[in-house]
Amino acid sequence: MIKITIYIDIIFLENLIMNSIILYATAVILKIKPKTLRVIASSTIGSIYAIITYVTEIYIFTSVILKAILAIIMVYVAFNPQNIKRMWKQVAIFYLTSFVFGGVALYLIYYIKPQEVFMKNAVFVGEYVLKVIMLGAIVAFITIKISLKIIKTKINPKDMYCKIKIKLQGQKIETKAMIDTGNLAKEPITNAPVVIVESSLLEDILPNKILNNLENILGGDLSQISEEMQEKYISKLRCIPFSSLGKQNGMLLGIRAEEVEIETDDEKKTTNNVIIGIYDKSLTKRGEYRALIGIELI
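Structure (tokenized):
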């Protein structure tokens, strides 16, 4: 029989590292920026629970209910969700990340050196953990990212719309946008994503001389634009190639937004790396939406 000496402080450290990796992976998937101290505090709670589970024989510490409560506490401490709906989403992604990580780790445990591993009260211990943590984290993270990317391309029709607020020239406009998985337009120099907006939405922000002469400007004809207007606006405008909106190889005039806020059912996201593509027609006959937004911005 192989005898292995297990130290509580090692179990604590290993679980602290593992929990931190899972929490950071969850944050990356959710596209949030957690505070390091909150992640460490949350990971510490999980590590203390792991030690209690290991040293005690009390059933309640291994019950499904207590584990679910632990997950909620860890997510709340790490990410401080602002509402119940967002918290449940974060808990779900945390569980998904944990399950994938656990599955990968379980495979690696028996693949690398199974003779050095044993389980007590659902806690694996032995001389395997650090290498399994690193390998498992890499494989699990890649697997989840690829899976979620595939899932996001199959959006339910009821989730095809969102609200956006655009800050441009110091002013803000708000409208309903359709999430268009086919909108892959990017500004070619900076590779910034493009939000396509009906020109009529910008009438109070950009001069009519520009909005009414989009095709001429794209063609290099600035005869209708005063020198003063050219100095103020032309350097800010961008030419964006696209293959949609009824054209296979078209050009769209765009301008960089100062800020774009995207609001879906459960969260808000703000970015300042977006180009506003100006479309001189209506995007829909019934006016259900007046902007198109690519899936990568959600």
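The chain has a mean pLDDT of 78. The longest strand covers residues 171-180.
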